[in-house]
């Protein structure tokens, strides 16, 4: 399976090390090869002397190492329902699911990623420790501690004393790690078997300065950090020596002070005759300029995604997405005139303070864009609001499912009349995501029961009923600012006082 992998760094191939680590991706092999964070974590541990590491995916059939030889088993935890695959993988290798049931003969189990950095409490009984925040450096420290400790108890005691590591039962407060981007994170392994085939992914920036009130990706990664321009160029050069496909990654790549310089650099190389394909993660509306679009088109991108979040200017201001209709119309005009084939608009339904007027504004906006841009491919994608920890809207309960499904049906019907295709995420699945997002330690048995019942949509409802859990308490209830929140033990900047001020500013000033 792995014979088509091309390593872009020199592996140590130290066969003398007897400390074995499994780095697990809770998904299939091809997806793992397109996960930048997962691959980079693998690389950082792979470069440690005396350590042997192997990547394990949900479809791994014959691992190189036997589970009895593995001392540390780490999981990437990026999506709320990843726990289902993680539990399945632990059972596959006959490892007890709960930490309290494991002995010194079993590996220590840990996880990192945005889900557990934001709120690890619904999963705390299943992991021996968690990496909270940016893990590039602390992962290596954790490996060294585990490698040099005489047993599980000593390792966990030492780990609990390290900044950025949460050991349930031992850690009282944990400070989220925030790394300076002094180096450029890039795809260390290129493969034609990857979901994004032979693609070299480059992290241009981390974080987002716009701070939309609902956005975990923004608040969890503040402040906005940008890779130095010269390092970016050097990394792009590295990638282009192995492949002609590059992808620029970041929540707000257009905020990089040299974003337009990078576009010009790529465009000029293409104009000089090089075959370079380049894609970008979704752009802000105000980042759509002729030079950017020309570069994307020259590099083979035919469509792009714009996150406008809401159709009315009032609601965009409420969520701190300060985009005018004029900017949106101008972005479409620039995209069309510079030969993009189409745009997909991404929005949310059920945002705090949303009214029927806001939904009608979305339809009106779509109608006017369609009218002015005949023949231009327009589509819309929507998800429903999920309150996320460590954001100004973490105190805002989610609308009830029936109301949200009515809103989704309205948008789908009205946009269909305009000939605009619409994709809306499952309202019921989004509800359970909200439960997990704001859950506390009482949900540990709940997620285990969901897994035992098969992990489908009905399993969530059935598990809640069996265990007598009021899931609306987590999903739809408005919290008071004085309420103790499950994730309050994590020290993160900006802190709770700032989030309260932002909540008041957005939901009072713009209503």
In a nutshell, what does this entry contain?
By secondary structure, this protein is an alpha/beta fold. It is 37% helix and 17% strand. The chain has a 6-stranded mixed β-sheet with strand order 3-2-4-5-6-7. The protein has a 4-stranded parallel β-sheet with strand order 15-16-17-18, with helices on one face.
Can you give a write-up of this model?
- The protein has 511 residues and is α/β, with parallel strands linked by helices.
- It has 3 domains: 5-175, Rossmann fold (3-Layer(aba) Sandwich), CATH 3.40.50; 198-301, Transcription Regulator spoIIAA (2-Layer Sandwich); 306-511, Transcription Regulator spoIIAA (2-Layer Sandwich), CATH 3.30.750.200.
- It is 37% helix and 17% strand.
- The chain has 19 helices and 19 strands.
- The chain has helices spanning 29-32, 36-46, 82-92, 114-118, 138-148, 152-159, 216-219, 229-240, 259-271, 290-298, 313-318, 325-337, 356-372, 401-417, 427-437, 444-452, 457-466, 472-475, 496-509, and strands spanning 5-7, 19-25, 51-57, 70-76, 108-112, 129-131, 165-166, 174-175, 189-191, 199-203, 205-206, 225-226, 245-249, 277-280, 303-309, 342-349, 377-384, 421-424, 490-491.
- A 6-stranded mixed β-sheet has the order 3-2-4-5-6-7.
- Helix 13 links the parallel strand 16 (342-349) and strand 17.
- The longest helix has 17 residues, at 356-372.
- The chain is globular.
- The N and C termini lie far apart (55 Å).
